Amino acid sequence: MLKKLIYIAPISLILLQGCSALIDGHTVSVDSYAAKPVVAGTYYLSTKSTNVDLNIEKQIFENSIQDMLTSKGYNRTFVVDNADYNIIYDYKVSGPFTTEEDFPAPVNEWWGTENPYGGVYNGLYDANWYGDNIQYVNYFVKELSLTAYSNENPVWQVKGHTQSQTSNLNEDYQYLVSGIANYIDVSSGKVIYVNVVKNSKTGEYRATKL
Q1: What is the span of the domain harbouring residue 35?
Q2: First-last CA distance in the chain
Q3: pTM exceeding 0.85
């Protein structure tokens, strides 16, 4: 599959833009920045995204973010004046985009399961039996960002992107949450690729740096 690479660069102190090369729907590209060493504390969670309100069960989505931040030592408060940080999240989708995929297709008239050759020549697949066909594939890119503020000053930000076959925001967000978890309040220094796998039996997500 043709891979797309879009450079992620800061536009202010820590605000990041764009997405990067994506391998599949379970691979998350991550970019993060922290202005200085950060001590975890209490936080108030909010969003400016109307997409979340319209297309996803907001409480379930926020609970997944809360569980992830709790694992990093952050404790949620529902009183903004009691919070050390105001963490604003944004979750959105862009696309569709189109890419090309090459696949081999038979061009020899003797090709077929009923033919004794079966596409095999002297025990090997002969290149002369193949032709390259091209199909066009549509995909979407989903982005999750968390930005932490202290006294209205940005402290850290993390962004994750993943490729998806659907624009449905109810799907894939847990892969994004799991993918960015290890990059909360730290600077990645570059785009990091994380493979996130869901255990079909336990429902747990496991993230591994590629």
Answers
A1: 27-97+139-209
A2: 18
A3: no
185 CB-near residues (< 8 Å, 6+ apart): 34, 38, 40, 72, 148, 155, 156
Domain presence at residue 163:
yes
Residue 186 forms part of a structural domain: yes
Residues 163 and 63: their CA atoms lie apart, in Å, by 23
Query: Is residue 13 in some structural domain?
Result: no
- Summarize pLDDT for 7-40 with one digit per residue, the tens: 333 333 334 444 444 433 479 999 999 988 899 9
Dihedral, 17, 14, 197, 200 alpha carbons, nearest 10: -100
- The C-alpha angle with vertex 5 and arms to 159 and 3, in degrees rounded to 5, equals 115
**What residues contact residue 45 under an 8 Å CB cut-off, 6+ apart?**
62, 65, 66, 76, 87, 89
- Name residue 194's amino acid: V
Q: Which two tokens stand for residue 208?
A: 């591994």
Average pLDDT over residues 162-188: 90
Cβ(97)–Cβ(139) under 8 Å?
Answer: yes
CATH number at residue 152: 3.30.160.670
- Residue 36 in tokens: 């200085």
